[in-house]
Amino acid sequence: MKKIIVNIAHNQSRAAILEDGRLIEFYVEKPTEKLVGNIYIGKVVNVLPGMQAAFVDIGIGRNAFLYVGDAININENEKGKVLPNINEVLKEGQKLIVQVKKEPFGTKGPRVTAQISLPGRYLVYMPNGSHIGVSKKITDDEERNRLRTLGDSLRQEQESLIIRTKATEASDEQLKRDIEFLRGLWLSTTEQSKKINTPSLIYKDLDLVARLVRDLLTEDVLQFVIDDGFEYRKIKEMIKHSAPEFVERLSLYTDKQHIFDAYDIQAEIDKATRRKIWLKSGGYIIIDKTEALTVIDVNTGKYIGHSRLEDTVLKTNLEAAVEIARQLRLRDIGGIIIIDFIDMENEDNRLKILEVLEEELKKDSTKSKVLGLTQLGLVEITRKKVRQSLDSVLLRSCPMCDGTGRVISEDEIYRKIEREIASFKEHTSIKSLIIEVHPLMVPYFKGTNQDNLQYLEKISDKLIYIKGNSNLHFHHYNIQFM
User: Fold this and answer.
1) 410-481: which CATH number, 2.30.30.40, 3.40.1260.20, 3.40.50.300, 3.40.50.970?
2) CATH 1.10.10.10, domain 42-203, yes or no
3) Is beta strand 2-9 parallel, antiparallel or unpaired with respect to 221-226?
4) What are phi and psi of 404, to 5 degrees?
5) Consecutive sets of 10 residues in the chain, 482 residues long: mean pLDDT of each?
6) Which residue(s) pair with 413 in the sheet?
7) Is this structure's pTM higher than 0.85?
8) What is the CATH number of domain 2-33+207-266?
9) Which H helix or E strand runs over 145?
């Protein structure tokens, strides 16, 4: 069973999803930063035939990227057809309504689409198109046919619907209310676009807490706990209207201890920013991110097993497969992912690892796909990239190493000091000086490394004192004459 734990802080909302007491998903949102789902009336500022795309000004300070496939309406049965040239679809200065589908990443602006979709509790409403989709997680053929027939009777001409998994819990009347609400929302949004200047925001998607109610509050959620009275009352009214059967599962947290400490969440968040993750068996995984992809390495670590090597490796890999699927959700890692499991001789064992990985990834609401093993025995995965990853939100690049995770070695710092001091012999008559270095550099001149200091005194013909200064960054030093 799941629990949803929400912390409302100054200008920030944080939500943790627990499954059997373990943190599986974590969301952080500042109201001013959230863009996905928002709808804008924008203006085309640049058409790029070579990229089959255009840049659209939506009024946020940087242009959004619109691919030709997102600029036209494509029905399910038309996917794969040859796309028109972007010049045939868009012109510079043209006004159009677009929706943000991907947050900005790094220097890239947001990605937008002209294929608008408005999610409700039981279905997703699209004002263009003519098809009915049913969630693949609904596997019963009879139920799929019922929902498809019902959706077809509710939609109007030039409307598309996607029936969500939660629709199996809903009555026909609830589905009807859902589509009528979303249809009215779209009509009011288009009316709004006619009255304001371009570019402008014309529809803002729900905030984090309201989206949790809409998208995640289902039968398998045991508790929904929030620590803010105002948000609690607001969400309680929302649940009463949309899903009254879940009102009793909502509660207000009032204890003095921080809500994330009370549910042991903060410690898990801290672990989710680390490069190394230990497994219960004693093995561990390493997660390294690059601009192009994420690489995950699996190691046996302290686990030595009790029988054959193959059994030890299999157990470590199986445990790692489960943890990797959890970490992808928790850290919200998207794009290309390469996993280097420990080599196994048995082909059946390798297939077992892939099966477990695929099964665990099915629990993830973000679409992912296991592509199989490469010729080098590496597992390839793709996972849809929608939001910024957790480390992008919680961490920043080190200002000293610029995100590489490495700094200049002690030996290289010493060589820099040596070259600088060598020039002092001829240019100054001062007989002594102080070298201030980071405390971690001090042992490089003392104890068994005393000869390093003596060599500097020899080439400079001066008496040298070494002083540790914790205010200096590791690769910085100061030389002061006495």
Assistant:
1) 3.40.1260.20
2) no
3) parallel
4) -75, -25
5) 91 91 90 83 92 92 91 65 85 93 83 93 88 87 89 87 87 88 91 87 90 89 94 91 88 93 91 90 90 91 71 90 94 93 89 93 89 90 86 80 81 89 76 91 86 88 90 89 80
6) none
7) no
8) 3.30.420.60
9) helix 141-154
